[in-house]
Amino acid sequence: MLDRFFSNQSFAALLFDFDGTVADTMPAHFTSWNHALSFHNLQLTHEQHLAWAGRPTREIVRLLNELHLTNMTYEEISKAKETHYLLSLNNVKEVVPVVEIIRHYRGKLPMAVVSGSRHRAVDVALEQLGLTEYFDAVVCAEDYVRGKPNPDCFLQAAALLNVAPENCLVFEDAELGIQGAQAAGMLCVRVSENGQSGHELSKV
Q: Which residue range is the domain that position 148 belongs to?
């Protein structure tokens, strides 16, 4: 299945961003951000949400504080956001072409989730989609210090799978995540929304 992206390349492991890549959770995250920020009479724009996709919550809170000259705490915002987000996961949908690849390579290649979200949010969504057992490792925001576009999370996932970074293929929907994968020396497949017809995959 990977031949259509890299016909002359073989891979030893597959790494997947989660939100917007494995699960179509970006609308739920956007609504949850604005629920948390409403207590401060603030709002996250669609442009900011897209530009900061892949960054850990702690980093986004810092950016918002700088932008609005506020003093919101990470603990307060993350708790309000996560509570609202978890309540919205009952109807979470998979990103079909990506999950087809995950199901195809189960037991054939080691796979990991590499996310800027916290473990609780990712773990609940994985369980909701019935994909928990498909991954050999899950790397989330609590597991590293420097978020995407730094390569740290991807390098950590490769180490957990005991695979050299250059032998990993990454699936990402966010530009910051693609930059992080490339900084880790990994090839990447971009996951894009295709209007009303779902998602499409393309070689970066």
A: 2-25+92-203
Q: Which of the residues 3, 17, 24, 173 is marked catalytic?
A: 17
Same domain as 37, residue 57: yes
pLDDT of residue 55: 85
Q: What is the pTM of this model?
A: 0.88
Separation of alpha carbons 76 and 85, rounded Å: 14
Active site residue 17: yes
The CA distance from 118 to 56, in Å, is 8
Q: What is the pLDDT of residues 81-104, one digit of tens each?
A: 999 999 988 888 999 999 999 999
Q: Phi/psi of residue 108, each to 5°?
A: -105, -40
CA 99/CA 97 separation, integer angstroms: 6
In whole angstroms, give the CA distance from residue 157 to residue 78.
24
Asked if residue 170 lies in contact with residue 17, where contact means CB atoms within 8 angstroms, the answer is: yes
| Domain shared by 182 and 199, yes or no | yes
